[in-house]
Each structure stands twice: as structure tokens, then as C-alpha cells.
Automatic annotation (TrEMBL):
Entry's transmembrane regions: 293-318, 339-364, 391-412, 433-454, 474-498, 528-548, 807-828, 864-890, 910-929
Keywords: Cell membrane, Membrane, Transmembrane, Transmembrane helix
Protein name (database record): ABC3 transporter permease C-terminal domain-containing protein
GO molecular function: transmembrane transporter activity
The ABC3 transporter permease C-terminal domain, residue ranges: 302-415, 812-932
Signal peptide positions on this chain: none
Length: 943
């Protein structure tokens, strides 16, 4: 049986090879789904932890506990550490995630002290295991090398605390016995001496979960001295804080939800348990659902196209073997046996497809994961994407579906004997089901209705997506439905057009043209499938490319607008405070040397400028106060040379607004939404205020200067008009912000010198990392920076965008392959099936030139018209659906509205492939005609 099936497959080896190609691609695309999905989820997880690290400025996967131990139960540091260790063992037992580092501190509350230099402070005596391995002694000595008088404990202090309290190395502190019980049995107070000052070895060291800047009441002692204090001075309680930094690379799609469950369980059972990443996991949970849906809905059109291709090829094979099946039936072969033959053939092909398809699926997944943009593949890290056992399950499912698509159509042929087959062969084409019952019109109407309905709900859809809800998959699938439905509708219209042309000129056509029109009208059903296939392939290729380009371009434009320049850095400033005679606290900042930045203009930057940026300012207008507004203080000339703004966002060039601001010292530029809200015009005055940087129960305004409105703008570099936050009920809401831009000198005069951002316009070809390294070499402590190049790179590597670029690129490539192969298959089989007909034409006196003319005419009125229709449908789908689908990727309202991006090179690539396909097809047809045994065909024609 196997030998019979093998010979049968080899009998039509090229058609079966094409069928095998379709099944291989189907298996490959299906099998890469779990690999691509799980890789994207792991990448999503990692990116969320990275983002949390930047947002919190702390290690983002930390668990721990803070509490206290009675000395009666835990007499020394080792006893307390042993208790902490038991908690850590329990956490590790359940979560099974390795710890990278841990920061544990034990402290005694010593109370107020008085130093020999009359400094009065209150420090905790703290023992922190392994602190010596993570600090540098900048002045004085270490705890191990320290030598003090008898009864005086050596301690070290951070540089920040030394500066904050104005202390010096060598200063000795004694406990204030009036406010503390830390005295020995003889009534002598506890004493300690500052012997050294230290700083972190590495600010990025995960050991420093609690930064030294936050530990503002700690001095550090050795373990032996810590234990000695407990016994000698009668401390009753040891306080502890334990932070365990987990290796978050071990938190994947497999254990994420289990980890979240354990964290929530620990919190319920232990009120002292602390963790900082359950919100990351909850956020991941919502996005994971979105990614799963998007992968399926983006893959579904590819899978449908592949199944259509498999159906088309198998139909061609069955039509060619119609007589063979009828002969088997007439010789007594049962329908079941005929089905068994084709089931066996398709099973052999499917087994081969699984063996070849899974490795190809692996490579396709790696290829999709390496996309930088649409059809741009780079060599980058794809370690998140690895082999997954579910690939085998998905490939088996795809193979079974392929077998059904190949085998089920056999039912139609397996019921007929030779007599029935011959009688059916003579029948004229009949109208297909979809054409008879206007399925195409119904589907187009349904698609347009869904589009209209979704367009009305755009704002709601955007807010739901921002709140973490899953996008409705129909939003994506509706575009594919539209393309398919309009493809059918176009086929109907092409059919009517061909009939009209045929009737108009049937009495004037030459025999070759007449024969070609006759062939087209009689085989419209057969040609209909390849026509719809062409329309869908070209339209989907156009739509996918335009969709990907739109997402990438709009995201890049928004990133560029939000930052306003190439690189923005924020340096660490030192804040000082003092108390006046009225016991009122005052603050001041010491400005760093700005020339360290300006000297970069000679090498790395075209221009740099200072920008005071405060997104928590208050604008006072119309008798109201608008908190959470944006205040920018700029040097107009420098700012204009450094910042940039996309043209067309304002009524005139934004340089004109800067010129207007430069002429008025207390002038301001305001946003148009503010002007509209309170009917403010140029020349009017408004007030604006900033809050004191010192945290207090109630915010305190520094000043509230008045500004004269010089210009009103719709958009301004760095101003995001809309932000999103959750209300008291947890619902996502859009918050509109307002802008006021003032002169830098006036802002400093009104509010005193405060930390500013440094905006940099880099020279062509300069990497932002080179600038940051240059600043580091100058000992500039950058605490925060934003770069357009960095943000665009992160956007392109974000899971959602990567999935879109990857799958759209793959679908584009696969669609082109299928279109080319499917087109060639149809015309090659069509020519071979008409060998006798060509012999008849030649016997009737038709030349080869006229036969070629006939074939060209068939191409024009079937394939070329369908291809042109594909371009039209793709353009229509782009116009109607791209902005709607883009809402899923760009749900935020923005000063830059979503615009459709079309890259002409994508259309050129597609057109080149289509033209190449037609040329190759015609060359192949010509070659077949030349090799055709025309003498035998002529003889048959004469007979």
C-alpha cells in the first residue's frame, strides 16, 4: 500500500511538492505560536521588571520582613539573624527563586546624643552584615582598623549624613541620660565615636535596596560591639529590616502566577511581610492576555491563507485525477477505500511536514523575534525564544487540519462512476453558493457596520486598554473579513465586467480574443479561487505593511515629541536647609558647574541648554487653581537651537513664539487648552506657582508670580497634554494638563535656584552612551536621563511592537510565496489540462502567436484585474481600518494625532514580486507550450 501511495504521489510530484510546501508552512506557523508567545511573555516580564527598577529606583524583585525581637528571646545578633533565616528558608521553599543578594540590618534605638562638639542628634546603632564589601571608606578608617578609648564604640557614617548634620570624623557622642535608658550598671552613658566616612562602591549594586540617601538616621558598628551594647546597656528590643533580592530572570510565564499567589498568601498570613513586585505581576497578567490574543489574531489570517492554498492545490490535484477516481469507482473500489487512498497520501505528506515544519517554525520564530521594524531583521538577542514542548502539539493539530482539508473534498469525487464523471464534465459552470445568495455583499455590510460601531467607541476602547483590559479580537479580524468580503465582491464585479466587454465586442473579436473570452467566462469558477487568492494576498500584504509602518512611525514621532530633543539628563543636586530665628525651615540648592555640559559642544553636542521642568506646578486663572500643570523655564535662543518640534502642529512656526517670549521678561507661553478653558488671549495676565521641595503635610507655595501671555500654542517640545491615572474606584481616567513656559531667568528669580534638566542636541552619528560616558568621566552624577534613541530602541524591542512587526513581516513574506506558487500552479495545470484544446485550435489554423495572444488576454482579464483589485482593496482597508487598529497600540490621547504611514518601497517590493510572478508565469507557459507534443495534439484535434 505504501509503495502504491508513493508512486501515486510521485506521479504528480510537482503538484504534491507544492501541497507539501503549504502543509510545511502551516505546521511551521502553527508550531512557532507557543514558542513565540512564551518568548514574548518572558520578554514582557523582563521588560516590566526593568521598567519597575527605573521607576522605583530600587531593585524590583524584593521580598523581606521588618519587625522587632525581644532581647529576652533573642539575646544577640546571631539569634535574630537565625530567626530571619527561617523566614527566608520558608519563602524559598515555596517560590524556588534564587536570591542574588540580601540586605539585612539590625538596629538599636539609642536615642538622643550630645557630642563633644555640641552637636545634638539621634542615631540608631546599626549592624549590617557584609556592609564592608559594598562600601568605600572615603575618610578616616574602617571599623576593623579603628582604635578608640576604652568604653567608646567605633562607628562609621555615610557621607550624606555627615554633611547633613555637619559632623566631623573623630567626634564622640554620649547618650543623653535624661532621654534614654542606655546606661551601664554603674550609670555611665553609652558612647560612640565616628571613625570613618563611607560611600557606596557602586550605586547600581543590588545590595543597596535601601539607599544610603534613605538611611538618614543610622551609624554602623561591628557585630561584636553590637552584641556588647545589648548586654552592657540593657537594650530590650532589637529592630530588624530584611530585604532579599530575588533573581527575577527566573520568574517566567511558567511560574509568574504561582509566584503572585505565594506573595499574596505571605501578605495575608504575615502582616510584617514586605514585597515590591506583586503589582508588576498583576500588570503582567493583564498584558499577557493581550499578547496571547494579538498573536492569535495576527496569525489567524496567515493560517487561513495557508489553508486556502492547501485547498486550492488539493482541488487542482483532484480535478486532474477526477477520471482516475471515477475509473476506480467503476472497477468496484468503495468510497471508503478511495478516501483511504487520499487519507494515506495526505498523512504521508503531513508526517514529512511535521519533521521539516517544526525546525522551520523555530527559525521563523527566531526571525520574527529579530525584527527591528517591518521587514527589517537584525542580529539581536533572542534568548527568550526557545523550543517549547507545545510546539509538537500545535504541529500535530495543524497536520490533522491539513489532512481534513485535503481529504474531505474527495467525498465530492468519490461518489461518481465514469458515466457520472463524464456527464458532469460536460456541464456548464454554475453559480457558486456565495454568489447566488450574495454572501459577499452581506459580509461587506457586516464589516462596515462593525467598523462604524468600533469607531464610535474609540475613546472607550482606548481607556479599557490603558486599564489593562484585553482588546476585542474582532477589531483585528474585521480588517481580514473586509479584505475577504471585498475580494469576493470584486470577483463578482470582474465577472460582470468581462461579460459586458465580451458582449460588446463578440462580433468584432479576432478568433484568439474570442476564444480567450469564451475560456474566461466558462472557467470563471475555477479562476475565481485564484482571483480571490490574488486579491487577499496583495491586499493583506499592503495592509500589514501599512499597519506596521503606521505603528512604528507614530510611536517614534510621539517619543521624539515627548522628549523634545536628543538627550535630557538630570544631575544629582545637593539640597541644604537651615532654621531661622523664627524656627522656620528654609531650603537652598547649590548649582553645579554648567560648563561641564557646555564644553561638550566642541565634540559631542551641537547645543545644550538648561530647562527648568516642573510637572507639579499650579496655574491660577479664572479664579481657579490648576494643580498638576507643567511649568518650563527656558533660555529662548538656546532652547530653539536645542529642542525640536514636528512641523504642522501649530498655526505658525514655533520659533515665532520663542521670539515673542524673548521680548517680555515676565512673558509666558501657554497651551491652547488653557486659553480655551478660560478664554485667555495674548496680552492677558495669569499667575503660576511652585511648591516647596521639603515634604510636609500641606504643600507650601514658594511664590506666585504673574506672567503676561505672549503666545498660545497647540504643541510644545516636551509637553504631553494628556496623562492617565486611576481614580478612587480604580478606573482609568484621562487627565488633561496645561502648560506655561517662562523665561529661565525670571523663573529662577521668582522661585530661587532649583535643579534643572540639561537638554542636548547631539551631533550627527553621536551615540547618547558616548555623552553619558563623557559626563561620567567628568564626575557628573547623572541620576536620570532620557534619550530618543534609547526610547525608540526599547519601543522596537517591546513585546507588543515586536510581535506586530514580526508577524506582519512573516505574513507578508509567506503571502508573497503562496501568491507566486499558487499563481504558477493554477496556470501550469490550466495549460496542461487544455493541451487537447490547443491542438484543436492549431488544427483549425490558429498560429502560436494567436495562442500566445489568447493567453495574454486571459491574464489581463483575470489575473491582472484581480491584482489591481488587490491594490485597491489594500488601499481601502488601510484607509478604513489602520487608525482603528492603531488605537490598540497607541491608546493615549496625544498632541500628535495618529496618521497613516505608507512606505512606497513596500508597494514597490510587492509590485516587483507581482510583476516577476507574471513574467515567470508567462515564460513557464511559453516553455510548456514549446515542449508540448503539438503533433499529437494536432492529430487529436483533427480526430
Amino acid at each position: 500500500m505504501f509503495k502504491f501511495l508513493s508512486h501515486k504521489l510521485l506521479n504528480k510530484k510537482w503538484l504534491n511538492a507544492c501541497l507539501l510546501l503549504g502543509i510545511i508552512l502551516l505546521v511551521a506557523v502553527a508550531s512557532c505560536n507557543p514558542m513565540f508567545k512564551n518568548g514574548a511573555l518572558d520578554m514582557l516580564m523582563s521588560s516590566k521588571f526593568d521598567a519597575a527598577m527605573v521607576e522605583q529606583n530600587k531593585y524590583p524583585a524584593t521580598i523581606g520582613r521588618s519587625g522587632s525581637c525581644a532581647v529576652d528571646d533573642y539575646a544577640d545578633a546571631d539569634a535574630v539573624l537565625g530567626r530571619i533565616g527561617k523566614y527566608e528558608d520558608m519563602w524559598n521553599y515555596y517560590m524556588e527563586i534564587d536570591a542574588l543578594q540580601k540586605q539585612t540590618s539590625l538596629s538599636l534605638q539609642a536615642g538622643y546624643t550630645q557630642s563633644n562638639l555640641n552637636h545634638r542628634t539621634s542615631f540608631n546603632m546599626t549592624y549590617m552584615p557584609q556592609i564592608e564589601d559594598h562600601v568605600n571608606i572615603t575618610y578616616g578608617t574602617s571599623l576593623e582598623d579603628a582604635k578608640t578609648e576604652d568604653g567608646v564604640y567605633p562607628c562609621i557614617i555615610s557621607q550624606r549624613n555627615l554633611d547633613k548634620y555637619g559632623l566631623v570624623v573623630g567626634e564622640v557622642f554620649s547618650i543623653d541620660t535624661g532621654l534614654s535608658d542606655a546606661v551601664d550598671s554603674q550609670g555611665n552613658p553609652m558612647k560612640y565615636q565616628i571613625v570613618g566616612v563611607f560611600e557606596e562602591k557602586d550605586y547600581s549594586d543590588s545590595f543597596w535596596y535601601d539607599q544610603l540617601a534613605d538611611l538618614d538616621s543610622e551609624v554602623y558598628v561591628k557585630k561584636d560591639d553590637f552584641n556588647d551594647m545589648i548586654g552592657k546597656y540593657g537594650f530590650l528590643t532589637i529592630y530588624y529590616v530584611d530585604h532579599v533580592m530575588l533573581d527575577y530572570s527566573q520568574i517566567t510565564h511558567k511560574n509568574a502566577m504561582d509566584t503572585l499567589y505565594y506573595l499574596q498568601s505571605f501578605e495575608k498570613s504575615d502582616k510584617y511581610f514586605e514585597q515590591n513586585f506583586s503589582s508588576v505581576l498583576i500588570d503582567y497578567k493583564g498584558d499577557a492576555r493581550t499578547i496571547g490574543i494579538i498573536i492569535w489574531v495576527l496569525e489567524l489570517p496567515i493560517l487561513v491563507l495557508l489553508l486556502a492554498f492547501i485547498y486550492m492545490v488539493s482541488s487542482q490535484i483532484l480535478e486532474m485525477e477526477d477520471g482516475e477516481i471515477a475509473m476506480l469507482k467503476s472497477r468496484g473500489t468503495s468510497t471508503k477505500q478511495v478516501l483511504g487512498i487520499y487519507l494515506g497520501q495526505s498523512a504521508i505528506l503531513s508526517v514529512i511536514a511535521i519533521v521539516i515544519g517544526i525546525p522551520i517554525g523555530y527559525l521563523l520564530c527566531k526571525l520574527a523575534a529579530s525584527t527591528d521594524s517591518f521587514l527589517q531583521f537584525g542580529f539581536k538577542d533572542t534568548h527568550f525564544y526557545g523550543v517549547d514542548p507545545w510546539m509538537i502539539v500545535y504541529s500535530l493539530a495543524a497536520a490533522v487540519i491539513a489532512i481534513l482539508f485535503v481529504t474531505l473534498p474527495v467525498f465530492k469525487y468519490a461518489k461518481n462512476s465514469i458515466v457520472e464523471q463524464k456527464s458532469r464534465t460536460g456541464k456548464v459552470n454554475y453559480r457558486p453558493f456565495w454568489e447566488k445568495f450574495f454572501v459577499d455583499v452581506i459580509l461587506v455590510t457586516l464589516s462596515i457596520y462593525l467598523l462604524y460601531n468600533y469607531n464610535k467607541q474609540k475613546s472607550t476602547i482606548a481607556l479599557d486598554i490603558l486599564a489593562g483590559s484585553r482588546p476585542d479580537p474582532v477589531i483585528f479580524l474585521n480588517s481580514s473579513l473586509f479584505i475577504f468580503a471585498v475580494g469576493l465582491l470584486v470577483l463578482r464585479l470582474i465577472k460582470y465586467l468581462i461579460r459586458l466587454i465580451y458582449r460588446i465586442g463578440r462580433k468584432r473579436w479576432s478568433p484568439a480574443v474570442y476564444a480567450s473570452f469564451l475560456q474566461i467566462t466558462r472557467t470563471v469558477k475555477k479562476q475565481g479561487f485564484i482571483s480571490v487568492f490574488l486579491v487577499m494576498t496583495i491586499a493583506m500584504g499592503m495592509f500589514n505593511s501599512n499597519m506596521a509602518r503606521t505603528i512604528n512611525k507614530n510611536k517614534t514621532q510621539r517619543i521624539d515629541y515627548n522628549l523634545g530633543t536628543d538627550l535630557v539628563v538630570q544631575e544629582q543636586w545637593t539640597r541644604g536647609t537651615y532654621i531661622d530665628k523664627d524656627k522656620k525651615t528654609h531650603w537652598y540648592y547649590t548649582e553645579q558647574d554648567f560648563e561641564r555640559f557646555t564644553k561638550l559642544e566642541d565634540s559631542l553636542c551641537d547645543k545644550v541648554t538648561r530647562v527648568i521642568y516642573d510637572d507639579n506646578a499650579v496655574i491660577k486663572a479664572g479664579g481657579e487653581e490648576l494643580a498638576g500643570s507643567v511649568l518650563m523655564g527656558i533660555n529662548t535662543k538656546e532652547f530653539g537651537e536645542t529642542a525640536r518640534l514636528q512641523s504642522g502642529l501649530n498655526k505658525e512656526h514655533w520659533y515665532n513664539y520663542l521670539n515673542d517670549l524673548a521680548t517680555v521678561s515676565n512673558g509666558v507661553i501657554i497651551s491652547s487648552n488653557l486659553a480655551k478653558k478660560y478664554n485667555i488671549k495674548v496680552g492677558d495676565s495669569i499667575n503660576y506657582a511652585r511648591y516647596s521641595p521639603i515634604a510636609s503635610k500641606e504643600k507650601e507655595e514658594i511664590a506666585s508670580p504673574s506672567g503676561t501671555v505672549c503666545a498660545i500654542v497647540d504643541a510644545f517640545p516636551g509637553f504631553q497634554q494628556y496623562v492617565y491615572e486611576k481614580d478612587s474606584e480604580g478606573e482609568m481616567q484621562e487627565v488633561e494638563r496645561y502648560l506655561v513656559v517662562a523665561n529661565y531667568a525670571y523663573v529662577v528669580g521668582a522661585f530661587s535656584q532649583t535643579p534643572y534638566q540639561v537638554w542636548m542636541h547631539l551631533k550627527d552619528g553621536v551615540d547618547y552612551k558616548d555623552v553619558l560616558q563623557a559626563l561620567s568621566d567628568e564626575d557628573v552624577n547623572i541620576v536620570q536621563y532620557e534619550s530618543v534613541d534609547k526610547d525608540v530602541s526599547e519601543m522596537q524591542e517591546s513585546p507588543l511592537v515586536l510581535i506586530t512587526n514580526g508577524l506582519f513581516s512573516l505574513s507578508f513574506i509567506i503571502a508573497i510565496i503562496l501568491c507566486t506558487v499558487g499563481f504558477l500552479i493554477y496556470w501550469i495545470t490550466s495549460i496542461k489540462q487544455r493541451e487537447l484544446l490547443f491542438g484543436i485550435y492549431r488544427a483549425m489554423g490558429m498560429s502560436m502567436l494567436e495562442i500566445n495572444k489568447m493567453l495574454i488576454n486571459e491574464q489581463i482579464f483575470s489575473s491582472v484585474l484581480a491584482s489591481l483589485a488587490g491594490y485597491g482593496v489594500g488601499a481601502a482597508a488601510t484607509t478604513l481600518f489602520v487608525k482603528l487598529v492603531a488605537v490598540v497600540y497607541l491608546p493615549e490621547s496625544h498632541n500628535i494625532a495618529i496618521s497613516i504611514a505608507v512606505d512606497p518601497y513596500d508597494i514597490i517590493k510587492l509590485t516587483a514580486v507581482v510583476v516577476f510572478m507574471f513574467v515567470v508565469c508567462f515564460v513557464v507557459i511559453r516553455t510548456i507550450l514549446k515542449k508540448m507534443n503539438i503533433t499529437q495534439a494536432l492529430k487529436l484535434g483533427e480526430d
